[in-house]
Amino acid sequence: MPARSYPTARQVRLGTELRKLREAVGMSGTKAAEFLGGERSQISHIEAGRWGVSGQRIRRLAGHYSVTDTELIDALVALAEERGKGWWEEYRGVLSPSLLDLSELEHRATYMRSVEMLAVPGILQTEDYARAIFASGVPGITDADLDVRISHRMARRQIFDVNSPSKFEAVIHEAALRMRYGSRKTTRAQLESLLEFCDLPHVALRIVPFDIDAFIGSAPSMLYAGGAVRQLDTVHVDAADAGIFVDAAPLLDRYRTLFGMIESVSLGVAESRDFIRRTIREM
After folding, report:
1. Backbone dihedral region of 138: left (phi > 0), alpha (psi from -120 to 50 degrees) or beta?
2. Rounded mean pLDDT of 8-13?
3. Do 113 and 122 contact (CB within 8 A), yes or no?
4. Phi and psi at residue 161, in whole multiples of 5°?
5. Euclidean distance between CA atoms 83 and 162, whole angstroms
6. 203-208, strands of its sheet edge to edge
7. 261 to each of 58, 115, 116, 257, 265, how far by Cα in Å?
8. Are the C-beta atoms of residues 241 and 95 closer than 8 Å to each other?
9. pLDDT of 123-164, one tens digit each?
10. Is the distance from CB of 15 to CB of 47 less than 8 angstroms?
11. Helix (H, G, I), strand (E, B), or coil: what is residue 195?
12. Which of 63, 206, 263, 283 is the residue whose CA sits 20 to 30 A from 223?
């Protein structure tokens, strides 16, 4: 079996979770490999996401590791047995793997929570607004690369068009509403688009105004994506040209707390809708 050169974030995550289960019982990779009738390298490749693993083998390993959490085991089997290519695969080899992994993360999420301080969340951006951000934030970008990035960003909105979309919550600082990307017209159109999202039953937008004294410091732009089970939650933190995926349990707890703290000082959903309306009138 040839090893994958570039495993996806989903494949890496599956391997990581299998490694965690093995390490939790203090078993060596060599012993786990012997149980499967293979060599140590087999477990190494599986846990690094470089080799696929069947659902049957996952259940055998889970039994060998004395794992009794059936919901977690079922979720890992589902990760391993997912077949078919997502729409983002058409961009493979054109965009960075992390952008494609972000698309898959959003596609699989059971719920999402986003925090943005200086810009509207990417998945809620209009084409002109996104174009202005990419054009100014990626020096030297070609027209062709810009068009591909815009196409991919707009395609990510597909998560809102399914029959039962996952709940999407976003906390946006007033600074993001006031920042002018492109032009006054572009920014105004973006805020009007936000109002349309406010009307969707599965979308909840909240604003943190400048005059909230309790909000101290800053927070990273991030997306918290709920997994099929709590252990499979993932945080995506924006970086310069890609992003960082966080899945360590202590860090997930920290980001859950951080989101709760920021949400606690934000306006309510109805108040935030009115706030956006006022901001549009003031432009």
Report:
1. beta
2. 90
3. no
4. -100, 0
5. 19
6. 203-208, 167-173, 111-116, 222-225, 234-237, 244-246
7. 37, 11, 14, 6, 7
8. no
9. 999 999 999 998 887 788 899 999 999 999 999 999 999 889
10. yes
11. helix
12. 283
